[in-house]
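Weekly sync, protein design subgroup
Attendees: M.S., D.O., the rotation student, P.L. (late)

Item 1: inverse folding check
M.S. brought a backbone from last month's batch and wanted to see whether the design step gives back something sensible before we order anything. D.O. pointed out we never logged the input encoding, so this time it goes straight into the notes. Structure tokens as presented (327 positions):
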């Protein structure tokens, strides 16, 4: 079957190989595809892999040969899964590949806010320490994490991995999740959402983007937070009302933010967070360690192989029936 990868560049900018996918069938890999390029490029494809290129109802209907859509990510909101379902096209995702990497970048942001190591190292490089009258100096408050309370919203895979790291730093962990947790790790405590906002020194978001969680960080909730608190968002940009967060940072009503995601990616140059006080933004890189991308690519290829074997795995749109020729 013909395979088309619509936007392979971010997963594999050159340090991984498509060889195992190419072994499964004729394969065209595009670095990226503009919306108007999708149909011409994929018109003969039976298998499409997409990371962030949107497959709308209209586009799916224009691809009559299409039998399978593989999403090169966990979140699959870029594919209209109902239209795919109506056409008996299974849509698969990669449910877990980067849990440890995402939890790790939470601490990259948190340690940056606590020490501003890069800033201080830069001042040393520019000669300030050599001409300092004292044996040390610092420009920002230096914060010990031990004893602080981390409030985690969304206590799933990444939330729990983050909790484990927080406990290792000697922090207290409270969490809020809509689902009743199957187990609560020692040292963690369930809390109401208001408690999380009022008592946390650090709030870290790990819930998915849904109609309930959109702008879960808003003006009212930011006002409930401690003036010394930090917000970390490595989950999805639209969880945050960005104007409200920028105002809270600029008014010093919270102390700082570390963000790996924004509501629009890449962001508009007028996004108020780009210039907000003590706000550090990374360009959606939590998932992108080499180890995590290797796992992602392997599972995405395994998903295609399982489909070709007539036993699709990681299907997110409930398609069980498979066209005869794939059995
Ligand atoms: P998961 O499904 O294991 O956990 C999500 C948790 O959120 C679940 O326990 C769920 O019950 C909870 N939840 C759902 N709705 C909620 C609500 N309204 N309030 C509170 N909790 C709620 O998912 P995961 O693997 O831990 O991933 C979490 C999120 O991380 C993903 O949804 C994704 O947006 C994000 N992510 C980001 C990157 C990145 O590169 N920045 C990479 C991978 C995942």
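Designed sequence read out in the meeting:
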């Amino acid at each position: 079957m013909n395979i088309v990868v619509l936007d392979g560049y971010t997963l594999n900018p050159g340090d991984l190989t498509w060889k195992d996918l190419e072994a499964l069938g004729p394969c065209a890999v595009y670095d990226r595809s503009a919306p108007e390029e999708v149909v011409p490029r994929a018109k003969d494809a039976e298998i499409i892999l997409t990371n962030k290129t949107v497959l709308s109802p209209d586009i799916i209907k224009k691809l009559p040969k299409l039998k399978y859509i593989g999403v090169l990510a966990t979140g699959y909101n870029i594919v209209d899964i109902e239209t795919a379902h109506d056409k008996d096209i299974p849509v698969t995702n990669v449910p877990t590949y980067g849990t440890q990497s995402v939890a790790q970048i939470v601490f990259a942001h948190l340690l940056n806010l606590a020490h501003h190591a890069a800033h201080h190292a830069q001042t040393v490089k520019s000669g300030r320490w050599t001409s300092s009258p004292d044996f040390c100096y610092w420009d920002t408050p230096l914060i010990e994490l031990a004893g602080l309370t981390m409030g985690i919203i969304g206590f799933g895979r990444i939330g729990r991995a983050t909790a484990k790291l927080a406990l290792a730093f000697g922090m207290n962990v409270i969490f809020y999740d809509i689902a009743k947790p199957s187990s609560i790790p020692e040292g963690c405590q369930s809390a109401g959402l208001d408690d999380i906002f009022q008592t946390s020194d650090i709030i870290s978001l790990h819930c998915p983007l849904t109609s309930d969680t959109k702008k879960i960080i808003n003006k009212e909730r930011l006002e409930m937070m401690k003036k010394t608190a930090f917000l970390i968002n490595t989950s999805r940009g639209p969880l945050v009302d960005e104007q409200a967060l920028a105002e809270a940072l600029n008014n010093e009503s919270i102390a700082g933010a570390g963000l790996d995601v924004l509501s629009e990616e890449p962001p508009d140059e007028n996004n108020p967070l780009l210039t907000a006080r003590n706000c550090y933004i990374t360009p959606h890189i939590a998932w992108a360690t080499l180890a995590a991308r290797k796992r992602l690519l392997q599972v995405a290829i395994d998903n295609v192989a399982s489909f070709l074997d007539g036993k699709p795995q990681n299907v997110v749109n409930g398609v069980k029936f498979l066209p005869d020729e794939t059995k």
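Discussion: The longest strand covers residues 149-153. The mean pLDDT is 96.
Action: P.L. to compare against the previous round before Friday.
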